[in-house]
Description:
The protein has helices at residues 52-59, 81-87, 104-114, 119-132, 148-160, 178-193, 229-232, 245-248, and strands spanning 11-21, 27-37, 41-46, 67-72, 75-76, 88-91, 166-170, 197-202, 214-219, 222-227. By secondary structure, the protein is an alpha/beta fold. It has a domain at 5-94 and 167-248: 3-Layer(aba) Sandwich (Rossmann fold), CATH 3.40.50. The strands form 2 sheets. A 6-stranded mixed sheet has the order 6-7-8-3-9-10, with helices on both faces. A 4-stranded antiparallel sheet has the order 2-1-4-5, covered by helices on one side. The chain starts with 10 loop residues before the first strand and ends in a 10-residue tail after the last helix. Magnesium ion (MG) is lined by residues 52-53, 93, 170.
Amino acid sequence: MSIAPEHKPVSIIETSNLCHCFSDGTKSLSDISLTFNTGEFTVIAGANGSGKTTLLRHFNGLLFPESGTVSVSGKSVKKDPMAARKQVGMVFQDAESQIVGDTVYDDVAFGPENLRLQRAQIDRRVSQALSDVNLTGFEERCPHHLSGGEKRRLAIAGVLAMTPRVLLMDEPFSNLDYPSTCTVLSQVVKLHEEGHTIIITTHDLEKVIAHAQRLVVMEKGCVVRDGLPEEVIVGIEQFGIRPPCSVQLGKGIQPWVN
Length: 258
Ligand SMILES: Nc1ncnc2c1ncn2[C@@H]1O[C@H](COP(=O)(O)OP(=O)(O)O)[C@@H](O)[C@H]1O
Ligand SMILES: [Mg+2]
């Protein structure tokens, strides 16, 4: 069946034969060709050291390919990393490392202030971003004194204040307890429903896979599987990834949050 033109997928991030090697000679990515469409919710899974973080860092110009290309909205990230960063925001695995302000307000305002926006516009962006992650009322708190889950939500707010179209989240549930995981996950699902393109890395599929539309599996710097989660998950143990308990129990993929 032909797809009506308005429903055709529109790509936003494309990599073509991407290879990367760190300065110490570690070969981290080999020949990666992937396309991510706008509005897609993708999980990139892989064992530790498989190259997930290194790949994400190429999407907003924190790293550049040794060979091959990465583009955002058709523009080379290497040629114009600032243009890529305006569209692609990244939440780092270590939320603490992303804290830049003495108060929650200052922390979220940091990005928009660097864009030299007017004060009223900065205020609007900060209050919208804090409301998106349920941190309204936390403006005067010290970021370092927040709980693990609150710090993660603050990091997401800091990225949202830059109004990116794509949200990259590197292991967003690491070190979070069950209630914090549910809160962060619900907010990620809501951001996806509101139209954001979401790309999440994880070595643990349990929490997030039911909400994703696509599962990419990495092993030793290569993409070894790419497709619908319910299909890709079959036999995923061979890549060092634990399948969700519900799958092991024969119940299929079950959501963590509604
Ligand atoms: N700064 C670095 N210098 C050298 N090698 C690195 C660096 N960062 C990561 N690596 C190596 O690159 C490979 C991929 O790492 P990474 O992208 O962090 O994997 P993952 O996020 O899947 O755990 C690993 O072999 C890792 O040891
Ligand atoms: Mg990593």
